[in-house]
TrEMBL record:
<comment type="subunit">
    <text>V-ATPase is a heteromultimeric enzyme made up of two complexes: the ATP-hydrolytic V1 complex and the proton translocation V0 complex.</text>
</comment>
<keyword id="KW-0406">Ion transport</keyword>
<dbReference type="Pfam" id="PF01990">
    <property type="entry name" value="ATP-synt_F"/>
</dbReference>
<keyword id="KW-0813">Transport</keyword>
<protein>
    <recommendedName>
        <fullName>V-type proton ATPase subunit F</fullName>
    </recommendedName>
</protein>
<dbReference type="GO" id="GO:0000329">
    <property type="term" value="C:fungal-type vacuole membrane"/>
</dbReference>
<dbReference type="InterPro" id="IPR036906">
    <property type="entry name" value="ATPase_V1_fsu_sf"/>
</dbReference>
<dbReference type="InterPro" id="IPR005772">
    <property type="entry name" value="ATPase_V1-cplx_fsu_euk"/>
</dbReference>
<comment type="function">
    <text>Subunit of the V1 complex of vacuolar(H+)-ATPase (V-ATPase), a multisubunit enzyme composed of a peripheral complex (V1) that hydrolyzes ATP and a membrane integral complex (V0) that translocates protons. V-ATPase is responsible for acidifying and maintaining the pH of intracellular compartments.</text>
</comment>
<keyword id="KW-0375">Hydrogen ion transport</keyword>
<comment type="subunit">
    <text>V-ATPase is a heteromultimeric enzyme composed of a peripheral catalytic V1 complex (components A to H) attached to an integral membrane V0 proton pore complex (components: a, c, c', c'', d, e, f and VOA1).</text>
</comment>
<comment type="similarity">
    <text>Belongs to the V-ATPase F subunit family.</text>
</comment>
<dbReference type="GO" id="GO:0046961">
    <property type="term" value="F:proton-transporting ATPase activity, rotational mechanism"/>
</dbReference>
<keyword id="KW-0472">Membrane</keyword>
<dbReference type="InterPro" id="IPR008218">
    <property type="entry name" value="ATPase_V1-cplx_f_g_su"/>
</dbReference>
<dbReference type="GO" id="GO:0033180">
    <property type="term" value="C:proton-transporting V-type ATPase, V1 domain"/>
</dbReference>
<keyword id="KW-0926">Vacuole</keyword>
């Protein structure tokens, strides 16, 4: 069943303070009239349940086209990220300043390699 991208025009992000700041400075941040934000800042005190809840909220929204998540944060909710198989919003794991990108942990790259046969 194909999923429509019509009406999806937001980029959402779950990330550390530096990543969120960069995205906000680029002008991508939004707080809707109902106080619904398109970003969640995660720090050392953020509980895994809060991260998982934000992930589920963003993936359920009909206005989000792409969800960026720092890879080290995605690792904290890896089973949830790996279970997500919808086309929209697309999940992209990104590096952070203190945590370099590791392709062997990226769920989308793993699926691509499985399809290609690598």
């Amino acid at each position: 069943m194909a999923q429509s991208q019509e009406g999806r025009n937001l980029l959402a992000i779950i990330g550390d303070e530096d990543s969120i700041t960069g995205v906000l400075l680029a002008g991508i941040g939004q707080v809707a009239h109902n106080q619904q934000k398109n970003f969640v800042i995660v720090d050392a005190k953020t509980q895994v349940s809060t991260i998982e809840s934000a992930f589920n909220d963003f993936t359920a929204r009909k206005d989000v086209a792409i969800l960026l998540i720092n890879q080290h944060i995605a690792e904290k909710i890896r089973p949830t990220v790996d279970k997500y198989h919808q086309t929209f919003p697309t999940i992209l794991e990104i590096p952070s300043k203190d945590h370099p990108y590791d392709p062997s942990k990226d769920s989308i790259l793993k699926r691509v390699q499985k399809l290609v046969g690598d």
